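Q: My labmate handed me this sequence with no annotations at all. I'd like to see what the chain might look like in three dimensions before we decide whether it's worth expressing. Could you predict it?
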Amino acid sequence: MTLYKDIAKCATSLIDDNFDSKMTIKAKSKAACGVGITSKSTISDSLAVTGALEGKYSVKNTGFAIDKLALDSKGTLTCETSLSPNMINGLTIGFNRTYGKEIENDLSFEFQQDQFHADTNFNYAGGADLNINSSILAKFNEISVGGKLDSLVNIKKEGEDKTNYCSGWGMGASYCNGKLGLFATTEELKKYSVSGTYKCSDQFKCATLLTCEPEKDKQTAKWSTALAGAYACNKTNTFKAKVTKTNDALQLNAGHSVKLQKGTDISAGIGYKFGTLGEKEKKPWTYGFTVTLA
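A: Here is what I predict for the chain of 294 residues:
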């Protein structure tokens, strides 16, 4: 059973993964004591270099784990922990704390069964406001339906009270039988997404995604459509291609991933955009790669 936010992941991962626009190198290792360590360095298209060092550790037979202890190049320290108490099967309690420009705390409760998933997250970053994000997803045979609700609560009653018990919401449904997948979601009936996947054979699968966001005047809309395909030549080499069309641009992408050995793989991608560039785009072409060493 998956999270509501991942209801269309099998389509979006096929459309988005391996089309890198950054240069990333990851090195993973695991100590004899069971501590997992990951070192990550990233070079953006503007040649800005960032990095992070992450560790994780699970305490055997307790249900407690340090899922992530990370320090990045900006000096931000993040600690993510989880606890799965034995007395309630399927329940996981998480607590995350981030030390950066401001201290941010997250407390989460996740309950998962074969046919049902529910989660709630409380986020507090100082000040007077507490953000609460909840979602549910239920599965009936090959059909899944669910939704999410976001709330903003003023807990200190300082200044303007911005409390809103429905600051955001969404709902979605999916159908997946292992070969064909159909997914539909909406964000407050203001943004709509429809996607699908089809497994043509063991070597080839494809996916499409259509998004539409009507403007306030209801007479115009921002829209985009993407079509992607992945062909696995063998167990180690996969080629991917994608075409994306928006209101004012057409983008072509190609990617390739190769698995050299267990835990070690390389993926690379290139792309070119015809039409209007975005605010943060300085050139019509993109390229990138990700190297993972283990």
